[in-house]
Write a structure and sequence with these properties.
34% strand, 531 residues, 4 helices, mainly beta, 17-stranded mixed beta sheet
Amino acid sequence: MRSQSSPSAGTRSSSGSLHGASSFGALQSPSLAAGPSWFSGGPRAAGRHGRRASGIALVAAGLLAALPGNAGAASVSQSGGTLRYSGDAAAESVLLSYDDRPGVVRITVHDAPTALPASCEWEEGYGIYCSLAGVSTVAVDLAGGNDDFTAFSGATTAVVVDGGAGNDRLRSAEEPATFYGGPGDDELLGFDGDDVLDGGDGNDNLEGGEGSDRLSGGAGADKLLPDPTGEVFGDVVDGGAGFDEIELYSSITRSLGLVDLSLDGGGADGFAGENDDIRGVEKITVQSGGTITGTDLPENFAVYGDASEPVVIAGRGGNDVIETYKADDKLDGGAGDDRLVGGFGHDTITGGPGRDTIIGDTDGSYCNEYSCTLPFGNDTIDARDGEADTIDCGVGTDTVYADSVDVVAPNCEAVTLGAAPGGGTPGPGTGGPQAGANAGSAITAKTTKLRTALAKGLKLQLAGLPKGKTKVRAKRGRTLVASGTAKVSAGGTATVRVRFTKAARRALAAKKKVTLTVSAGGKTATVVLTK
């Protein structure tokens, strides 16, 4: 422990309080001045981080007294370019801050470590001070226990934290961080940097903050929030095993437009300009219009808030739950026993194969401080699939096409019973559209020659889609081979040329015949290209 000089000299007292006029960056003691060269003290560093450091020190000093003690088995070591703090199995709190003095990191913990390298010193009441000379990464291994870690602003190295077993809370500031939650129900919070957050096993909460982040939920029911501020960054989100939830929404102060999201792992998801890659999530909540396409798995899609633009949602395979909100939306459950709720607008709802529950209007009103929106919509519902569905139209003048085995509520005004036309979008693994599903198809290929399509792109004519931008994807089996974005006119039509990936061009060049499944705006079509 460093010796203490008099309080009037501007040093720390043994009680941990700050005395004199000196700032955190200028604190010295006689032993410190004569100690290692990296503990040179000196004036407070200039700039943004220098201004914040003294405040950080005050916060850290105040928190230190409240930190729980542990068994004192923690240690610090240095190997190559990595400075490593290793905790023990007990719960602990660790604060990582970068000192005013250039090249110094402070690790604030309650108890003295059992081992320190020559580049570090322990000061009672303040924690561990280490030189960053030759250090490129500060690693923190918290081992077991319900741990709490915070990295303050000003990082000059990479920060990698492993929470270990336990329900941990790991937080970063403005610089990038890599957090591993480990087993347990963890909370991982990024901020401004390009963070890597891996929840591990357990029901975790991951929040990326600003920056292009990578969020991995791991096993468990996880909640993932890549951009909580509604800013535009390209994130990679993988929920992993378990029923995982993601929220996508615009900024409080501005709209990001329409969302385009497909869970096929092909990328180009999110709002315009984001190019997120979202996969492995089963529940998606958005507050904007756009296009959302599911997979063969059970999924839950919800639109909420003041979303006024139409949304087109295709559940595809699986037992899905789809709920929309204010706009005139299009819902297609696809194969599976689905629950489809239209919300407040004049919605078009297609049940698809399976025993579906279809509700035309939400069962409650929406009120803000100025007005209330009552459930109402002149909906069109198509439940013809030869299976027993349950249909409740709600308020409005509604039109229903149903089978004789369906249960149709009395509040459905115009009901037509007839044979199933084969409607509904199948799952991506069911072998393509069903017979009649795309009669008068919304997607027509203008290119039939494989060589031309590979060289110049596959030209498609789209019809019957909502106005705005929509993602167009072509898949061969379950592999995405081409994609593009179409700008749909007010009349619902567009012409688009989707480009094949480099890998697809190589793989398909020698083929004589290629069958593709093309999807756009919740519609699908089969396209055959020949040599």
